[in-house]
C-alpha cells in the first residue's frame, strides 16, 4: 500500500486514491464509446489531469473543463460538479493554491508539492492524455463527411427494409449477417 503526502493509504495513484473522477460524456457519468460504456478515467485520474493543467499555467474551473473537452475532441466534458470539488480538494491537500483575480473569480495554480506529484505520476498522466487523445481521434473520424454520409445511407436502407411490414426470421437473419460481415470488414481494414 502506498501512502500519500498526508499519510493516507491507497493503491496505485500515489496520493490520488479515494477520489473518483468522472465527468459527463456522451453517455452520462461514464464515457460512451462505440463498444459500450467504459470509464474515461480511473479513480484519481481527474485530479492528476487537473493538477497537470494547473502546473502548465493558472486556470479557472471553466477553463479546465474546456481544456479537457478539447483534449478529448469534444467527446468528453467533465461537469462543474467534478471540477470545482477537485480544485477545492487539491487546495486542501496543498497541491494547488487559489489566486484571487478580477471579479472575485478564483484561478488556481499548482504548488511545488503539486508539481512533484505530477512528476511522480508522469507515466499515469501520459496514459490519461493518450486516452483523451484516442477519444479525440475517434471524434474526428466519426465526423468525417464520408462516414457521416455512409452511416446515413446505412440507417436509411435499414429503416426502409424494416418498414416493409413485419420481417420474417429469415429476413432478419440475412440483414444481421450483412451487418456482421460489414463489421468484420471494417475491423480488418
Structural notes for this entry:
There is one protein chain. This protein has helices spanning 45-56, 61-71, 80-92, 112-120, 122-142, 145-162, 169-188, and strands at residues 2-3, 9-10, 24-25, 31-33, 36-38, 76-77, 96-100, 106-110. The chain has 189 residues and is an alpha+beta fold. A hairpin with a 2-residue loop joins β4 and β5. Mean pLDDT is 78; it is low at 1-38. The protein has a two-stranded antiparallel sheet. The chain has a two-stranded antiparallel ribbon with strand order 3-6. It folds into 2 domains: 2-142, Orthogonal Bundle (Arc Repressor Mutant, subunit A); 146-188.
Question: What topology does this entry show?
Answer:
Blueprint: E1 2-3, E2 9-10, E3 24-25, E4 31-33, E5 36-38, H1 45-56, H2 61-71, E6 76-77, H3 80-92, E7 96-100, E8 106-110, H4 112-120, H5 122-142, H6 145-162, H7 169-188
Antiparallel strand pairs: 1-2, 3-6, 4-5, 7-8
Helix pairs in contact: 1-3, 1-4, 1-5, 2-3
Largest sheet: 2 strands, antiparallel
> Fraction of residues in helices?
55-70%
CATH superfamily grouping of the largest domain: Winged helix-like DNA-binding domain superfamily/Winged helix DNA-binding domain
Query: Which class of secondary structure composition applies to the elements?
Result: alpha+beta
Strand content: 5-15%
User: How many beta strands in the DSSP annotation?
Assistant: 8
CATH architecture of the largest domain: Orthogonal Bundle
Strand order of the largest sheet: 1-2
CATH class wording of the largest domain: Mainly Alpha
Low-confidence stretches: 1-38
Mean pLDDT: 78
Specify the overall morphology: elongated
Quaternary state, please? single chain
- Topology order in helix (H) and strand (E) letters: EEEEEHHEHEEHHHH
Number of helices: 7
Radius of gyration (Å): 22 Å
Distance between the termini: 44 Å
Amino acid at each position: 500500500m502506498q501512502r500519500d503526502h498526508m499519510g493516507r493509504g491507497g493503491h496505485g495513484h500515489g496520493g490520488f486514491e479515494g477520489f473518483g473522477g468522472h465527468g459527463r460524456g456522451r453517455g452520462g457519468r461514464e464515457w460512451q464509446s462505440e463498444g459500450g460504456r467504459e470509464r474515461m478515467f480511473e479513480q484519481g485520474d481527474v485530479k492528476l489531469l487537473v493538477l497537470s493543467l494547473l502546473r502548465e499555467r493558472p486556470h479557472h474551473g471553466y477553463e479546465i473543463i474546456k481544456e479537457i473537452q478539447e483534449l478529448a475532441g469534444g467527446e468528453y466534458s467533465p461537469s462543474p460538479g467534478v471540477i470545482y470539488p477537485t480544485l477545492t480538494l487539491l487546495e486542501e491537500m496543498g497541491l494547488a493554491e487559489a489566486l484571487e483575480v478580477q471579479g472575485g473569480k478564483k484561478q488556481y495554480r499548482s504548488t511545488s508539492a503539486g508539481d512533484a506529484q505530477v512528476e511522480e505520476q508522469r507515466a499515469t498522466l501520459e496514459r490519461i492524455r493518450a486516452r483523451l487523445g484516442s477519444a479525440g481521434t475517434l471524434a474526428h473520424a466519426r465526423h468525417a463527411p464520408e462516414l457521416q454520409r455512409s452511416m446515413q445511407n446505412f440507417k436509411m436502407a435499414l429503416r426502409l427494409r424494416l418498414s416493409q411490414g413485419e420481417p420474417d426470421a429469415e429476413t432478419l437473419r440475412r440483414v444481421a449477417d450483412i451487418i456482421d460481415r460489414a463489421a468484420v470488414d471494417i475491423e480488418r481494414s
